[in-house]
Amino acid sequence: MRPATTRPATTKSQGKRYYPTPALEKGLDILELFASTPEGMTVSQVARRLNRTMSEIFRMLLCLEHRGYLAQSANKDRYHLTLKLFRLGQEHPPTKRMVTEALPIMHRLAHLTRQSCHLGVLDGGHIVILAQVDSPEPTGFYVKLGSKVDLMLAATGHVILAWQTEDARERAMQEWVRETGKKKPADLDDHLSKIRSRGYERRASYEVAAVTNISFPVLNAQGDAIAALTIPYVKRIEDSTGLPEIIAALREASVHISEAMGALPEEDKPAPAERKKRSTAKSAQ
Length: 285
What we know:
Elements: E1 10-11, E2 17-18, H1 22-35, H2 43-50, H3 54-66, E3 70-72, E4 79-81, H4 84-91, H5 93-113, E5 117-123, E6 126-133, E7 148-150, H6 155-162, H7 166-180, H8 188-198, E8 201-204, E9 212-219, E10 225-233, H9 243-260, H10 272-284
Antiparallel strand pairs: 1-2, 3-4, 5-6, 5-10, 6-7, 8-9, 9-10
């Protein structure tokens, strides 16, 4: 058997020491690999991708299957990731609370606008859809609950970035570059500045024709985006509700969710000049 590669203990920039745990790292490598391969993989494919032996990978896969993180396909020829990690993420108290607070508001929004809506959060270089409500109409467009979307191909992602601190935004972009191997778009900062000035994002879908994504931020007590609420707007021939009404309803819904998560009510928020003064003082500290 090939000996496991160990990394020497190192000191990270934050001053924390790193102690290698080969078995844990091997398991995490497997989970991360399956997360990026929705079609599943065989034991030999996993071993080849991770440069490990078949025997050590087989034992790890059996353990992860026993714990419910992996499952075998019907013909037993390959493994695929289950939804256990997604369910664990939802059980995280802030996330679970946000979904609980958001769903009634989202149902009212879908009923009022006759459009579907979804709530997305930032996860590395992707957006993960935490909550989704269908349109009450027989036709429409929706994003599947639990799906992951490239950060740069999602209005939800751009809105979240627009309401992040500079450091948080830079970390997210570094993660996106690492995951995708692409360069940061040259016009991104200008684009995010325009979104911030407008108060929301409205643009044609990056992936689906005839869909216009309208997205507002969900803010915390510090005014940073912790999620974004989005309507993938589809114009129907007999619709009586137009874009201005939909934008107004979506803005109101995002404010209600934000306030439920601790954001200041609109009337209590500082004026723009005061917000700029606070931001400058914070940066100088």
